[in-house]
Design a protein that fits this description.
By secondary structure, the chain is mainly beta. It has one domain. Helices cover 10% and strands 53% of the residues. The chain has an eight-stranded antiparallel beta barrel. A two-stranded antiparallel sheet has the order 5-6. Strand 7 and strand 8 form a beta hairpin. The radius of gyration is 38 Å and the shape is elongated. The termini are far apart.
């Protein structure tokens, strides 16, 4: 009986020792030596698709139509040299796009007073509001089509220094008389631009992400919905001593009239550089541009209006996925 107990005890001890040694060996085998690891054997593979293009001339990674709210602000630069449009009231001097009178000479005085009026004298300006649509085809280019409403204010000037008057001492005194033609127009514009991404990145990591600088080239046309021209003469340098018959230093020759020789259709070549940032469904864009006129404001003279402006847009992505 004692011998049988000893045999059982010995068997249990040997079995326990074997299990302990086996567990120790297994533990030693499971310890990792970082120096023996090959980084190329452990490649991270995400469970979603990553598609990206970045650097110089990146390519869009997805193809879609985008809608954007478009706002533009800038100025108009009138270019004309010694013109006499038939729609103007005839004056002694021809008109030019260059401002020939100083800020003080342009001040408008109160009737029968030597004090300036509260009204500002007219100035050139440009602004527009509308929509644009962007289409990204399967090439590294983007097409933009826009439809906007524009408000344009342009000006022409003339100077006549041949006129004179008798001053209080009875002497003949020459004075400068300025002629100003101020045109205010509302136009409907549409056009197409080719946008070339120059530098940046396009990525599609479950959602579209893109930020890039671009060059924009395009053509556009405008139809004149409303056009009002005001033409007036102004005493420029003898305001304290001389007035017109109305008691003021200005007199209207035309007031908010439509020119008989108005060109209703205008055409432009557009060049711009810009930046775009889009994240998921919304984005913003900024573009500085120049619109080069391809025809004249009037049909019988060369009067061209150059536009230099800044385009700002709020983009909504993925409305029409392709």
């Amino acid at each position: 009986m004692v011998i049988r107990f000893v045999n059982i005890t010995t068997f249990v001890f040997l079995l326990s020792l074997s299990l302990c040694l086996s567990r120790k060996a297994s533990y030693e085998d499971s310890v990792l030596n970082l120096e023996d690891l090959n980084p190329y054997d452990y490649v991270f593979k995400p469970d979603y698709k990553i598609d990206a293009s970045y650097g110089w001339f990146p390519k869009p990674t997805i193809n879609f139509y985008n809608l954007a709210l478009d706002f533009q602000t800038g100025d108009i630069y009138d270019i004309a040299h010694d013109i006499r449009p038939s729609g103007f009231v005839t004056t002694n001097s021809s008109f030019t796009g260059s401002n020939l009178i100083s800020r003080n000479e342009r001040k408008i005085m109160r009737k029968n007073e030597n004090n300036e009026t509260d009204d500002d004298y007219p100035a050139t300006s440009y602004e527009s509001y509308g929509l644009n649509f962007r289409f990204t085809p399967y090439i590294p280019l983007i097409f933009r089509i826009h439809a906007i409403l524009s408000i344009n204010d342009g000006m022409l000037f003339s100077v006549d220094e041949s006129r004179s008057f008798l001053n209080l001492s009875g002497s003949k005194q020459n004075f400068k008389e300025a002629g100003i033609a101020y045109i205010s127009e509302i136009t409907l514009n549409s056009g197409i631009n080719l946008i070339i991404p120059v530098y940046g990145a396009f990525a599609n990591i479950e959602v579209p992400l893109q930020s890039y600088y671009y060059l924009s080239l395009g053509v556009s046309g405008a139809y004149v919905v409303s056009s009002d021209l005001t033409q007036y003469s102004q005493i420029a340098d003898a305001k304290e001593s001389l007035r017109y018959s109305n008691g003021q230093d200005t007199i209207n020759l035309m007031k908010r009239e439509r020119l008989s020789d108005l060109n209703k259709f205008r055409y432009y070549a557009d060049v711009g550089i810009g930046w775009e940032l889009d994240i998921y469904k919304i984005g913003i864009g900024l573009e500085a541009y120049v619109s080069l006129p391809m025809n004249s404001v009037v049909t019988d003279e060369q009067w061209k209006q150059y536009i230099i402006g800044l385009r700002m847009s709020v983009n909504f992505l993925g409305f029409f996925n392709l």
